[in-house]
Design a protein that fits this description.
The strands form four sheets. The protein has a five-stranded antiparallel beta sheet, covered by helices on one side. Strands 10-11-12 form a three-stranded antiparallel beta sheet, with no helix packed on it. It is elongated. The longest helix is centred in the N-terminal third of the chain and has 32 residues, at 20-51. The protein is built from three helices and twelve strands; from the N terminus they run E-E-H-E-E-E-E-E-H-E-E-E-E-E-H. A hairpin with a 2-residue loop joins strand 8 (112-116) and strand 9 (119-122). It folds into two domains: 3-51; 57-160, OB fold (Dihydrolipoamide Acetyltransferase, E2P). 30% of the residues lie in helices and 32% in strands. It has helices at residues 20-51, 100-107, 152-160; strands at 11-12, 17-18, 57-61, 66-70, 74-80, 83-88, 93-96, 112-116, 119-122, 126-130, 136-139, 144-146. It starts with 10 loop residues before the first strand and ends with a helix. It is α+β, with helices and mostly antiparallel strands and 162 residues long.
Length: 162
Amino acid sequence: MPLWLLSSAPWTTSSSRLTQRNLEPLLQNALDTIDFKKDDVQYEALTQNLTTNQKRKLVLKTQESVHVVDLNEIIRCEADKNYTFFYLNNGKKILVSRTLKDFELLLSNHGFFRVQQSHLINLEYIERYDKQEGGSVIMKDGAPVPLSAAKKDQFFQILENL
């Protein structure tokens, strides 16, 4: 609300005369209260978003059907040329004709990390890191996933923050 609109009118009340000079602090206080309430609403919305268990889903189209999968069901993804295999926590394996790069772009902000050129893993399903034979990530389904030397530092940084 621009304050210059108030400068031309003399403000009066039944008990005292208000001028622009003594009205400005009152207006600023009102604006601060509105900002505080707005921040309070934003905080409440943020808290609700963080505490609500929202199901994030991914649509996987295959030749036979269309699968709607919760992201927390995906253990890992593996590239096979221009195809991607999805390994789910119920034992299912789904083949999709899109590249792993496409899914990396979709999933990297949702707890997934590309550990190697042909593997994208869900960080929630890491069981351990095995140092033998160049190093691999063992997933909770028992599958070993090779970790590229170029990704090791970044991977261990992420592990420290889990």
